[in-house]
Amino acid sequence: MEDIAARQRQHYDIIGRGYEAHYADLWSRRYRDRFISQPLTRGVELRNRTVLDAMCGSGELVQYLVGEGANVTGLDVSSTVVQLMHKKVPAARAVAGSIFASGLDDESFDVVTVVGGLHHVQPRAQDAIVEIHRILRPGGWFVFAEPHAGSVFDLLRKAWYRVDPFFEPNEKAVDVQRLMADNVDRFEFVRTRYGGNLGYLLVFNSMVFRVPHWLKRAYAPALLVIEGLIEPIQGRRTSCMVRSQWRKRAPTGRPKTSNAG
User: What phi and psi values does residue 63 have, to the nearest 5 degrees?
Assistant: First the structure.
C-alpha cells in the first residue's frame, strides 16, 4: 500500500500544476458542477456538516462543498496539490496524507467524497474504502464518482492507459458491483447512476487528450448540451463514469441494497 501511495505522491507532484490548468478552468468547473458535484450530493445534507474530500487534488470539489456551507477537510497524498487546494480555498483544512492511513479520528466526518480517486489506488480501492468507513460516523455518507469497469469506454481506456504517461501502471476503472458486494455489511447502497459521454471525455478530461485551451473553449458549450441530452438514456455499458451514494450502517443495521442501476 505504501508503494502505491508513494507512486501517486510522486506522480501528482510532477503533473499537479498541469492538472490544475485543465481541471479548474471555466468549462471543466461547469461540467463538474452540473454532472458531478450536484448530482453526487443531491439529497445529502452539507450545510454545517463535517466533510472530507479524500484524494482532493487541487480542490475543485472542495470549492463546491465550502460554497454549500460544509466544514471541509481536503486530503491528498501529494503535498503539491494540497498546497494548491489550500491556496484556492483557505477556508478548508488541508491534510497531506494517504487514504490508506489518513491519521484522522474514528467517526469524525458526516460525509466523505471522492471524485476520480479510487481508480488511482488500484488494486487497493477496497483498503481505501475500509479507511473511509472508519472515519465516517454511523449514518454518514460516502459519495463517489469514478470511471467504471464493464463499459465500452473502459475497453478504450485500458488501451489508452498502456501508452499514456499521464497514467500509472496500477490505474484501473473501478468494478462498482464488486465493491458493493465487498461492502454490503458496511454500507447501504442508496443510489447508483451512470453517465458521462462526449463532455466527460473532451471537456472534463481535456488534459488526457492534450486539448489546447483555445480549442476547448470553442466546443465546450455544445458538448455540455449534448451531454445533458444523452445522459438520461445511458446505462452501465454506454457510460464513462458511475456516481454512487452509500450510507454507513449503524452497528445493528441489516444488509440491503437499493436503486442500483
Answer: -55, -45
